[in-house]
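User: Modeling request: complex.
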Amino acid sequence: MQLRLAIAGIGNNVSALVQGIHYYRRLLSNGCDPASLPGIRKFRIGEYSVLDIEFVAGFDVDVGKIGLPIEKAILSLPNNYPDLCLDIPPSNCIIREGVWMSNGVIAGRQAVVEELRNARAEVLLYSLPTGLQDMADAYAECALDADTCFVNCTPEVVARNPALLKKFQQRNLCVVGDDLASQMGASVLHRKIIDLLLDRGLRLDSTYQVNLGGNEDFKNLRVRGLTKELSKKNALARVGLDLARVHVIPSGGVVASLADRKVAYLNVAARGWANTPVSIDVKLEVQDSSNAAGVIIDLVRLAAAAKGGGAPGFCSAAADLLKSPPAAVLPTENAGP
Ligand code: NAD
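Assistant: Request completed. Predicted assembly structure:
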């Protein structure tokens, strides 16, 4: 069964998502066994396989992307996810102008709603730069008006906004958010190391995480990193952990040569038996946007499947794939840069 997906923000995440689906389509048409494909958690979720995503609408504000079909827009600068040279067949999904801010007022909402309705979009994926709460609210309202489920890739508060969540529930729509936890990202790895230490009876002295990259996300996080920092702390928060001892730097700097690759350094300092010290250092290097796409593919299918299954509101099956689901504690202390 096809899932009709609309997307706001045609950046690197979307490039990795679109190209990845075509990459797997090619492998399967060459006779690969779906169970043997690398990088896929579940080939099928509900009625949807990884190949069943149909891109029906796309929105951006970058004039270099507006008017292009999605398979071309994803390759436009400043996107720098690699071109996997897959000869993606031409699509009818033309990128339209999205919602923008004009003199402090949100503009372009009605056109987005109409496009979503005309495209009969089932899910709207919100994948804008971090730190634009007004935009997250505006696109969530567009989804509500167009009868479309909503997936929030970013740390902005949507699923955690009780008023918005109630509106999605009342309209029998699903919302997934907030902030995806990358497939093998710094947050999931950091969480596992802390869990292991606490489980083995050690006491955490301090821990930090520093992330470096060379894509637009890392540039943006240098100036609008606060919600990401809070969300990353949400991903680490657990019983018995003093968040005052946790330091997270979402973008420690932009290293152009890394392009869409990301490097994360983690350090955990703890005390073991008789108060003796233990220190762990880890370096993680990943393709940043593949890491997002490997989770987005599940989030959009979980949203559609939950709606199809008559379970509106927050899709709890997605909670483990998110940094800040509605139950998350949002730390307000020690949130400075
Ligand atoms: P990106 O900067 O490459 O892409 C963002 C896109 O949004 C750009 O094309 C930009 O032109 C567009 N945009 C800006 N304002 C817009 C508007 N008003 N309407 C429509 N489009 C608009 O970002 P990305 O790397 O694709 O990441 C997207 C989001 O996902 C970021 O908030 C990022 O923090 C979050 N995220 C990424 C990862 C990951 O890459 N591993 C993990 C978790 C969360």
